[in-house]
Amino acid sequence: EYGAFIDLGGLDGLLHITDMSWGRVKHPSEILKVGDEIQVKVLKYDQEKERVSLGMKQLHADPWESVKASYPPGTKLKGKVVSLAEYGAFIELGEGIEGLIHVSEMSWTKRVKHPSQVVTVDQEVEVVVLEVDTENRRISLGMKQLQPHPWDSLPDSFVEGSRIKGKVVTVADYGIFVEIMPGVEGLVHMSEMSWSQHLKNPTELFKIGDEVEATVLSIDRDERKMSLGLKQSKDDPWLHAKEKFAPGSHHTGIVRNMTNYGLFVELEEGLEGLVHISELSPEQVNKVTDVANVGDVLKAEIISIDARER
Q: Facing residues of 74 across strands?
């Protein structure tokens, strides 16, 4: 399993599987059979233990010595898939030279979770060299770079202010990612989801697969980033709040939240005002709950309003 024993003439030497070839060898029988006469190089001799370590690949130059010149970044070439891992596929580019296609470099449009979704062992694939690290003997390869990037075919109609439809593909703590077209996504930050709802987590409103309609807030084609908004489909309730809720005017609202320093009254959807504890009664109030509770309907006077600070 681990090598071949070579009769050197009354003395056996071990040719370990890792010293047979600069390339990948799964079993010694791929290269040798009993009775073969071969040329080897003595790597180590331990007279005390009567052990001789032999090598075959050492008779030829290490192919990695010329890798930088042979495979510069940007080179397009063909190779054979020799093994698959959770994170990508290893491609044999030449004897002793393998490169890795990470799953993230396989497709612009598919969310590849395992390389077997795209390639199979022994398949010949076309790749492009992304990076060469001779010190660690690593070559990073890509497949998707051989295809046009989806952002390059994004219609000119996608501009700030335009309305788009898409599907939720990722739900994060800070927002959701919406797929506009295969390979093109935009972010709806949590702050751009609703004028009125105080969301703690986007999962309160969305799940993967939901269809949404959004407004393009900003788009950077060079950086391939797009910011989207959902609340922009409705008028901002604070837009005309200053005229509607002028200081001195009286209004009725519902207590929506309470703190130790006061209570928040909803005057209309998306618009709340604070009644500070010192403004609850002419007498001293020690506890907000002594005056009102969540859900109570109260009549209050507008003391001041700052629409800019909301």
A: none
Sign of the torsion angle spanned by Cα atoms 196, 201, 207, 213: positive
CA distances from 82 to 1, 64, 87, 160, 204 (A): 19, 18, 14, 47, 45
Q: Which of 56, 59, 141, 58 is nearest to 98 (CA)?
A: 141
The residue length of the chain stands at 310
Q: Is the pLDDT of residue 249 over 90?
A: yes
pLDDT value at residue 196: 67
3-state DSSP percent of the chain in helix, strand and coil, to 5:
15, 40, 45
Count of alpha carbons within 13 Å of 116, Cβ hemisphere only? 4
Rounded CA-CA distance 224/227 in Å is 10
End-to-end alpha-carbon separation of the chain, Å? 74
In angstroms and rounded to an integer, the radius of gyration of the C-alpha atoms of the chain is 34
